[in-house]
Write a structure and sequence with these properties.
This protein has 125 residues and is an alpha+beta fold. 24% of the residues lie in helices and 45% in strands. The protein has a four-stranded antiparallel sheet with strand order 1-2-5-6. A two-stranded antiparallel sheet has the order 3-4.
């Protein structure tokens, strides 16, 4: 019974530690109405800044690659009826997964007034 309670607790708590896009949305939307200087203190200097009609757009970009190593080919040698045969089982190539997130904060009169993001790695805990 104790094992079942522990397993259930782990399953319930695991939902709290999985990063999601919705958690990221809540995190970045929490900056709306904040002073832009506080945003920069927390996030660091943006990678890009655009200005248009008195509005500034602070752009933060993250990029990463994960490489999953493939398998080498496997060579199989058989001896049957005094005959030798060799079979090659193809390996698999490396797989590369690209992760990126571009977050843009809109600033007007030194206050964050809007935010949007795009990418396949915009998630938070």
């Amino acid at each position: 019974m104790k094992k079942m309670v522990i397993i259930l607790a782990v399953i319930l708590l695991s939902g709290c530690i999985i990063p999601t896009e919705e958690k990221y949305r809540v995190k970045v939307n929490g900056w709306v109405n904040a002073a832009s200087v506080d945003l920069i203190r927390d996030w660091g200097p943006p990678q890009q800044i655009f200005e248009m009609n008195g509005h500034k757009f602070l752009v933060y970009t993250t990029y990463d690659e994960t490489v999953i190593q493939g398998d080498d080919p496997v060579y199989e040698t058989k001896v049957e009826d005094n005959k030798v045969s060799r079979t090659v089982h193809r390996g698999t190539p490396d797989r590369i997964y690209k992760h990126h997130c571009k977050t843009t904060f809109e600033v007007f009169e030194d206050r964050v007034v809007g935010v949007n993001f795009q990418g396949n790695d915009c998630s938070s805990y």
